[in-house]
Please model this.
Amino acid sequence: MRTYFNTASDMYSRARPTYPAELYFWLSKQAPGLSLVWDSACGTGQASVDLAAYFERVEASDVSEAQVAEATPHRKINYHVCSSEITPFEDNSFDVVCVAHALHWFDFDSFWAELKRVLKPGGLFVCWGYNWIRLGDHEDDVIDRYVLQKLHPYWQQESKILWREYKDIAFPMNLIEVPKFELTQNWSMYRVFEYIRSWSATSILIESDGDQFLEEAWMEMIKLWGDPLQKKTIKLPFFVKAGRFEDSPAN
Model:
């Protein structure tokens, strides 16, 4: 698994959205048990902490030492620095394995083999992600003209897999029906721009050419937003995939 998030992990943690509470409740009801869950590619532990509300123990791992160093401590969570394709976990140990907004970075063949090894019979795999942000027609136009068009050459191929909501991934399991979940946040303009700065393509462009494009976007956006401390409802298109391996007994 590649990582582009070794730097500014504290900013990454602040900038990323929290996931819908309904997702974790639904997930817990699909699980064959609530003893042990693996939060794979946990980042700074956003999903790990929420999973701890439902599971007796959470094993959380990330390939980035910087991300894990910023992870939220919790008595139920054990954090590990390791790839998602090679882990120290025992065979047939997890009721559920989750990947939050990260599956597109994985080496799929290696991860599927590791997933099948560590999941209990009947265990559940769940992954999810989100695309862009939706602020409103005029605000979205500013982001498109001043940010997205500038970032176009800097996105990795893996990000394009995310944009298509993992439709291009061949899941080696029986996918199950998942309810529709909404991902909304109450963010200030400062938080929106922190989020944009956390994108991998933004980091690459800033490193090569500086952040003038963000300053220009800020000046245009503030004409529409007003007070940058004012919070507004932000929508992030959200999707979830879940399944079990074919030889798993029905739940």
About this structure: Residues 1-9 have pLDDT under 50 and may be disordered. The chain has one domain: 9-244. Residues 137-151 form the longest helix (15 residues).
